[in-house]
Amino acid sequence: MYRYLLATTAIPVALMAAPAVAQNAGEGVGPNAGGDEAEIVVVGEGLEPTPAEPAYAATELDREQIVSAPSGRIEDVLSSVAGFQQFRRSDSRSSNPSAQGVTLRALGGNATSRALVLLDGVPMADPFFGYIPLTALAPERLGNIRVTRGGGSGPFGAGALAGTIELQSADAATLSPVSGSLLVNDRGETEASAALTQKLGAGFVTVSGRWDRGQGFFTTPEDQRAAITSRAEFESRSAQIRAVVPVSDTLELQARGLVFDDHRTLRFDGADSTSSGQDASIRLVGRGDWQFDALAYVQARNFSNVVISSTRFVRVLDQRNTPSTGVGGKLELRPPVGPNHVLKIGTDYRRSSGELQEEAYSAFTGNLRSRRRAGGANSDLGFFIEDDWSIGRLVLTGGLRADRTTITDGFYLERQADDSISRDDTYEDRSDWTVTYRAGALYRASDALALRAAAYSGLRLPTLNELYRPFVIFPLVTEANAELDVEKLEGFEAGFDLTPREGVSFSLTAFENRVEGAIANVTLAANLRQRQNLDAIKARGIEAGAEVELGQFRFNGSLAYTDAEVEGTGFASTLSSNRPPQTPEWAGSATLAWLPADGWQLAATVRHIGAQFESDQETDRLPAATTLGAFAEVPLGGEFSLVLRGENLTGETIVTRNAGGVLDLGAPRTVWAGIRFGY
Fold first, then answer.
1. What 3-state class would DSSP assign to 482?
2. Which terminus of the chain has a lower count of CB atoms within 10 Å, N or C?
3. What are phi and psi of 255, to 5 degrees?
4. Which residues pair with residue 449 across a beta bridge?
5. How far apart are CA 9 and CA 180, in angstroms?
6. Per-position DSSP letters for 571-592, written without gaps between them
C-alpha cells in the first residue's frame, strides 16, 4: 500500500515542478503567459455547491468551530450538529473501534454508519465493518465541514441513508507554513500534532501528523471492578500528505495519502483492539465551461480484537486479523445548459472485500476450541442525474439514481482444534438494481427568510461484518446473517432558514424518515442475538439551529427531538413500537464564545443527550447525561498561544453501556493545558 502513497505523492509533485519553474523564470502560467497573466486560484476542494443545496437541511462548521472543541476530537466537533449521533456515547479513546458508526436523525443502527462520511470527496467508512476511523480524522487538518441530512442521490449516494458529512481539508491559505500543538491533561496523557505547508508555484503540499497516547480512565464503575480490570489505555497515530496543483487556469489536480494506527484496551488487561489503515486518492477537478470532478481511491484496512470473559476473566476470542480493501471512484460532469440550470450527471463505483481470521478459546480450560474465517465482497455501481432550475426567487431540484449492487464470494469456514472442519458454508452470489430519487424546492420569500421542502429515498448495502462476522461480548453472542437485504429509506422534510440581520440566523426542520429492512441485532434467546432486517425503523422529529454573532460574542446552538420506533414481525414482532437501541429522544448542544481581542477565545459548551436503551428489548436503560466543556486560547506572542480545555467539568456520570447492570462509563472530568503554534 505504501507504493500507492508514494505514487500518489510523486504525481502532483512532478506536475508542480513545471509551473513553479515557469513562474520563477518569469514565463508565466496559463493562456495569457507572457502578457496580462490570468491568475490561477488554487481551491483544493471539489465543485461548488449548487443553488439548490440549501433545499436539503444542511449545517456548516467553520475552522474556528472545528479547532476549539473541548476534547479536540472530531466526534466532539460533530456533536454540535442537530441529529448527529454515534452508535455509543463513548468517544474514540474509550470505545471499540468497530462501534464507531455514525448516523443522523436517530435512525439507530448496529455500529455500522448510516451516514456517508467523506474526506475530500472520498468515502471513509471501513470496507469490512462500515465504522468511521475517527482517530484518523484530526480536526486541525480540516478547513470546513458540511453536514446534509436526508437520503442522497448524487455522487456516492448509496450509503448516504441518513445524510452526508463532508470533511474538507484545510488549504494553504488557511494553514501556516509551520503549525503544531502539544497538550497534556491531568492524567498525564498527551496530544501532539504538527503540520508543514509549502507553497510550490501556484500549488501547495501539506504534510501533517498527530500522536495521542494515555493511560486512560476506568470505564468500569468502582464497585464492579476486579483484579484484572484495566484503564482504557489508548495510543493513536496518523500522518497525512496532501498536494494540490493547478494543471491550467481551469484544471486542478489533488492527491492525498493517509496512514493511521490505533491501539486501545477496554475494561480488562489483555482486551486489546487495534485498527489501522493506508489510504490514497487522486482527484482531478475542472472548473471550465464543462465542469467535472473525477476521483479514484484505494484503501487497505485492518482490525483486531481480543475478547475477555467478564465472568472468568480469561481470553475467549482472538479476532487477530481482519484485512479488508476498498477501491472506488466517481466521475461527475456539469455541462453548460444555460444560466438558470445546473445539471449534474455521472457515475460512481465502490467495492469492498475482506475476511475475518479468529480463534475461539474455552473459558474453562483456556484451550483452543476452533479457528474461523469468513468474508466476501460487496460492490455498488451507480449512475445519477440531477438538475437545479432557478426561477427568480424559487429554485427547484430533482434527481434520480440507479444502483447495481452485488454481494459475492461469501463464505464461513470453521475448523476444530484438531483441524477438522466443523462448518464450511458458501453463499450464493446476489445482485440487484435499485432506483432512488431526491427532489426539493427552495423559495427565498425575502432577503431574510428562505422556505424549503424536500423528499428523498436512499439505500445502504449490508456490510461484510453484518453478513458474515459473528461477535461476542461475553456471554452475549451475536450471529451474522448472510441473507441480509439492503436497507431502503423513504423520507420527507420541510423547514425554513431565517436571517433577520447580519450575523444572526435560525433554522427549523420537521422531518419523517422510514428505513425499510433496517438491519438490527434481534434478540433470539437470553444470550443470543442475530442480525436481521426489521420491517422498518420510523423516525419523525424536529431539528433546530441558531447562530448569533454580536460584537465579541458568538453563540451556536442546536436541538433535536426524535420520535423513533421499530416495526417488526417474526422474531422481531416483540420489538414493534419499541425505540431503536441507542436512540435518544432529545439531544442538544449550546456553545457561547467570547473573542475579546485578536487571537483570544473563551468558550463554554453544554451538551445534553437524553435517556436511551441499550438493547432492542428496552430492558437496560442509559440515563440522560448533561456535560459542560470549555475551551480557552490566549496569545503569548508571535505565533504562540496558550490553550486550556476542559471535558465534563461537572463530573457527570455518563453511562455508555448497560448489559444487565454491568456498566461502562464515559470520560470523567478532564483538564488539558498546552501550547499551539501557527494556528
1. coil
2. N
3. -145, 145
4. 498
5. 22
6. GGGGGTTPPPTT--SEEEEEEE
The phi, psi pair for 447, rounded to 5°, reads -65, -20
Q: Number of structural domains, the chain?
A: 1
Smallest CA-to-CA distance from 544 within 508, 589, 497 is with 508
Peptide bond into 475 cis (omega under 30): yes
What cell numbers appear for 91 in the block?
A: 468517544
The 10 Å Cβ neighbour count of residue 166 is 20
Q: In whole angstroms, give the CA distance from residue 634 to residue 618.
A: 47
Element (H or E) spanning 490, and its range? strand 487-501
Look up residue 202 and give its three cell numbers.
501556484
Query: Backbone dihedral region of 294: left (phi > 0), alpha (psi from -120 to 50 degrees) or beta?
Result: beta
Name the phi and psi angles at 248, rounded to 5.
Answer: -155, -175
Counting every residue written for the chain, the total comes to 679
Between CA 604 and CA 554 the distance in angstroms is: 11
Q: How far apart are CA 90 and CA 31, in angstroms?
A: 54
What CATH number is associated with residue 375?
Answer: 2.40.170.20
Q: For residues 293 and 46, is the Cβ–Cβ distance under 8 A?
A: yes
The strand pair at 476-479 and 528-533 is best described as parallel
Report yes or no on 37 lying in a domain: no
Place of cell 515557469: 22
Residue 630 sits at φ, ψ, to 5 deg, of: -145, 155
Burial of 351 (0-12, 13-18, 19+ CB in 10 A): middle
Can you give the residue range of the structural domain that contains 67?
2-25+43-677
Q: Is 33 inside any structural domain?
A: no
310, part of any domain: yes
CA dist list (Å): 444 to 17, 55, 259: 47, 11, 44
Does a structural domain hold residue 30? no
Environment class of 324 (CB within 10 Å of its CB; exposed 0-12, middle 13-18, buried 19+): buried
84 in helix, strand or coil?
strand
DSSP state of 34: T
For 398, how many CA atoms within 13 A lie in the half-sphere containing its CB?
2
